[in-house]
Amino acid sequence: MNFERKIIITGGAGFIGSHVVRRFVNLFPNYKIINLDALTYAGNLENLTDIEASANYFFEKVDITDLEAVREAFKKHDVDSVIHLAAESHVDRSILNPLAFIQTNIVGTVNLLQAAKESWIEITPNHRFYHVSTDEVYGSLGDDGFFIETTPYDPKSPYSASKASSDHIVRAYGHTFKLPVVLSNCSNNYGPNQFPEKLIPLFISNIVNNKALPVYGRGSNVRDWLYVEDHAKAIDEIFHNGVLQETYNIGGENEWSNIDLIKSLCKIMDSKLNHSVGSSEKLISYVTDRAGHDFRYAIDCTKIKKELGWKPDTDFESGLEKTIDWYLSNQEWVNNILSGAYEHYYEEQYGNR
Ligand code: NAD
Ligand code: TYD
């Protein structure tokens, strides 16, 4: 088949990547979508069983730290675009093991840029290298203020520092080699298929299993939450209509302190599980704070709203409910993860707090 575009989506077996792959495979049958993923602990092809038989979907098990393997994939599929999501993505793991973050997030990104630079000799309008990043690169806010696209970078964790490095390198390839790059920095995502080490799916799973809910510090840290499909929609918009060399901030305009969010989650869980009111909240356990814990993230997403007409479709109440329903009806997906290596991680992360 003669595809109009041939797009590598890295990290397509992960949380956000799987929603982006599904959206592109279903909405653009004339695009060849190549999901390039190493299938680390966070990658799970079960996330994509509904689209895996589609004629425009291809999977390549490739580690982006392996430059030769990345080059091969570019050649094999005659790739003209990249949407780069593959990363080590969990702050707590970056505190336990920073080196993996340097390898995948920095070296892996350079390898993709280098393979694109080598194979895109004459740049056409179809060529595009889209780097998906996080608001955590801007550092930590106090009670007031918002991150805008020109906020100076001030990353504080090994995770955010590795993502900040990758953003700088992407911009450097854009500037120096005229690679057609575009970037976005998004706030915290939630929704189906998120690995249950992150706050919302971890707490849903712990409530189901009647386990303690480990709230770091006093639970006063603030995050802005966006439903994952709204992020996938923004990525689609930026990929197609974003201006080259530009950066777009993406956010939900939906700030919550951790403890308020957790208490709301507990209430919905009590009603879904037919537990007496207040029983999930009793599982809350205040534990030692995360080292270097960023206090607050908040995004000003005026630019993407004004210039690309994007806005989130899902309000937090219905998004949270959809997310909880998905986890409750996909217990097998969760149980497949909550064993072996995950148990070891859980013990290391929470055992001595
Ligand atoms: P995730 O951890 O759920 O998935 C990461 C995926 O990348 C997995 O499928 C994994 O197998 C793959 N991967 C990891 N190392 C790899 C390697 N060396 N080679 C090839 N594949 C590899 O992550 P996520 O939460 O879906 O995040 C995706 C991207 O979005 C990341 O770049 C992250 O920084 C960014 N982001 C995430 C959030 C969020 O709230 N989750 C918010 C803003 C930005
Ligand atoms: P997380 O989902 O890890 O995302 P990020 O650190 O990238 O924002 O955590 C969200 C917030 O929840 C963050 O302030 C840390 C806090 N948190 C807890 O209090 N307990 C936990 O067990 C986890 C995983 C997170």
Question: SSE layout and pairings?
Answer:
Blueprint: E1 5-10, H1 15-27, E2 31-37, E3 57-61, H2 67-77, E4 81-84, H3 91-96, H4 98-119, E5 128-134, H5 158-177, E6 181-186, E7 188-190, H6 199-208, E8 213-216, E9 222-227, H7 228-241, E10 247-250, E11 255-257, H8 258-272, E12 284-287, H9 302-308, H10 316-329, H11 331-337, H12 341-350
Parallel strand pairs: 1-2, 1-4, 2-3, 4-5, 5-6, 6-10, 7-9, 8-12
Antiparallel strand pairs: 9-11
The chain binds nicotinamide-adenine-dinucleotide and thymidine-5'-diphosphate.
Thymidine-5'-diphosphate binds next to helix 6 and strand 8.
Distance between the termini: 56 Å
Q: How much helix, percentage-wise, in residues? A: 40-55%
**Order of strands side by side in the largest beta sheet?**
3-2-1-4-5-6-10
Flag low-confidence runs.
none
If you compute it from the alpha carbons, what radius of gyration comes out, rounded to the nearest whole angstrom? 20 Å
Provide a count of the helices.
Answer: 12
The CATH homologous superfamily of the domain at 5-190 and 227-254 and 292-314 is named NAD(P)-binding Rossmann-like Domain
- Ligands in the structure? nicotinamide-adenine-dinucleotide, thymidine-5'-diphosphate
Order of helices and strands: EHEEHEHHEHEEHEEHEEHEHHHH
Overall shape: globular
Average pLDDT across residues? Answer: 97
Number of strands: 12
- Give the CATH architecture of the domain at 5-190 and 227-254 and 292-314: 3-Layer(aba) Sandwich
Relative strand content: 15-25%
Structural class: alpha/beta
CATH fold descriptor of the domain at 5-190 and 227-254 and 292-314: Rossmann fold
CATH class of the domain at 5-190 and 227-254 and 292-314: Alpha Beta
Main sheet characteristics: 7 strands, parallel
